[in-house]
Amino acid sequence: MLRAPLLHFLVLGGLLFLLQSGFGGPTSLRAIEIPRSEVAERIEAFALQVGRAPDAEEVRALEAQAIEDALWLDQAFAVGLPAIDAVVHQRLIQNMRFLDPETSESDADLYARAVELGMERSDTVVRRRLIDRIQAVVRARVRSEPIDEAVLRAYYTEQAERWREPTLLDLTHVYLSRDRRGADADADASALRARLDAEALPAAEAVALGDPFLGGHTLRGATPTRIAARLGPDFADAIADARPGSWIGPVESAFGPHLVWIENRVESRIPGFEEIRSRVLDDWLEQRTREALREEAARLRAQTDVVWIDDRA
Question: Which terminus of the chain, N or C, has less C-beta within 10 A?
């Protein structure tokens, strides 16, 4: 039954109701205990990841995160989430079988023993699962709210640059290898540019007058980012404002000089609201979800007395 999608739906709905009603009403101040070792472990992980010890502000942020996680966990246990989550059950049973591979106890007995040992509160994977699931209730609440089109359009207008599409270029380049030509590469490029202008050779034929290029000589629908990744940021900057229909260059890349023919250019633009409404909605829901999570965490913090326990040896 713990794996049944319908049961999951009903459980999520029940948790949502609790958050919107019981959890939202006046409550007495409750206390949660947080071991100092949790912050110490976060500080150690930070140092390993960043390569230095956190400063005072970063330590405060790590403490705040430990408090917030404890608040979410407290909510998860308050609504009995560990007892009805299949993933938590599986994890705890697996832990017990790992500790005692020869056991003949049933899954139910192993789960009960894991709870007796406090494993549902100490296991990192279980803790992360419970936090994610209780936060999912808040996310579900946000997504269940009706969408106000006026608010969505206002968000689109305020954040329009977020959805700007980059300039797209179709281009062909003729490469002159500095490794092959040495000091003559720049002079050869200038001479070839003069020839291409004089003879009006098609770009496809002009490529044969240069040297082979491992990355290919054409790019289609290329963004500035893609061009920079292929040929370097200086190359991308040099052709950023180039117009179609003429040769450009020599343009320098990390590999040597190039002559560039722009075949087509699609200017950067911001798509209309109706064109990208689904993307706007996704972004707005993501922002609203982050706000709702912060609001819920702040409300829980206001109702909770945090007690630090010094459990370090």
Answer: C
Of the candidates 189, 202, 174, 171, the one whose C-alpha atom is nearest the C-alpha of residue 265 is: 171
User: Contact, 103 vs 96, CB < 8 A?
Assistant: yes
Long-range contact pairs involving 46-54 (C-beta distance under 8 Å, separation at least 24)? none
- C-alpha span between 198 and 144 (Å, rounded): 66
CB atoms closer than 10 angstroms to residue 169 = 24
| DSSP tag of 211 | B
Rounded CA separation 260/219 (Å): 11
What residues does each domain of the chain span? 5-149+277-309, 168-266
Dist. CA 92–CA 190, nearest whole Å = 71
If the chain, 313 residues long, is cut into consecutive pieces of 10 residues, what is the mean pLDDT of each piece?
52 56 59 91 94 94 94 91 91 93 91 91 93 92 92 95 94 93 92 91 91 92 94 93 91 92 95 96 95 93 91 64
Distances (CA, A) of 38 to 70, 77, 217: 10, 19, 55
Tokens for 269, please give them.
Answer: 């633009």
21: helix, coil or strand?
Answer: coil
User: Under 8 Å CB-to-CB from 228, ≥6 apart: which residues?
Assistant: 235, 236
Per-residue exposure over 206-236, b if at least 16 CB sit within 10 Å of its own CB, e if not = bbeebbebeeebebeebbbeebeebbbeebb
Kindly report whether the peptide bond that precedes residue 202 is cis, defined as omega within 30 degrees of 0.
no
Name all contacts of 223-228 with Cβ < 8 Å and 24+ positions apart. 223/166, 223/167, 223/168, 224/166, 224/167, 225/166, 227/169, 227/171
Q: pTM for this one? A: 0.72
Q: Which CATH architecture has domain 168-266?
A: Roll (3.10)
Q: Is 106 helix (H, G, I), strand (E, B) or coil?
A: coil
Cα(271)–Cα(119) distance, integer angstroms: 51
